[in-house]
Design a protein that fits this description.
With 141 residues, the protein is an alpha+beta fold. It folds into two domains: 99 residues, no CATH class; 39 residues, no CATH class. Helices cover 52% and strands 16% of the residues. It has five helices and five strands; from the N terminus they run αβαββααββα. Helix 2 packs antiparallel against helix 4. The longest helix has 26 residues. The model has no long low-confidence stretch (mean pLDDT 94). The structure holds zinc ion. The site of zinc ion has 9 residues, from helix 5.
């Protein structure tokens, strides 16, 4: 298991519980966030309605430092930069969510939304394995 996944599983405030197939996308987004926005925090990583949900608490806006580096910045620019600072971090997390659509949560191969009632994104192979396990469970009950 990668170091970053271990950290996210340990530190995500409300838990990180997704299949192996989606982790590379979350790891990629977290790597970008670490590089550009140190201090961000992972809030929750989960599957919902067959899609990835990656909720973060963005790193706080370093207003003092920005003012120091840009002594002539206008207030309206500072306000805009602050908004963009937060939006950019959320966009990175959102990009992982979008990238996972159509990817098997289990193995990372191309997949599609399957199931009725409890839906999930799986490839045919993993979906078949799931059916098989369910049948075995009933057979052993
Ligand atoms: Zn699969």
């Amino acid at each position: 298991m990668s170091e970053i996944r271990e950290r996210l599983e340990r530190e995500t405030e409300l838990g990180a519980s997704i299949g192996d197939g989606w982790w590379p996308f979350v790891e990629a987004a977290a790597t970008l966030l670490d590089a550009a926005y140190p201090g961000w925090k992972s809030g929750q990583i989960k599957e919902k309605f067959a899609g990835l949900r990656f909720y973060i608490t963005p790193a706080p806006w370093p207003e003092e430092k920005v003012r120091e580096n840009n002594p002539h910045a206008r207030e309206e620019d500072l306000e805009r930069w602050e908004k963009e600072w937060y939006a950019a971090q959320n966009a990175i997390a959102d990009s992982a969510e979008r990238a996972c659509s159509g990817v098997c949560e289990n193995c990372g191969k191309p997949g599609e939304v399957k199931g009725d009632g409890w839906i999930h994104t799986k490839c045919d192979e993993c979906a078949a394995g799931r059916e098989q396990r369910r049948e075995e469970m009933w057979a052993n009950a």
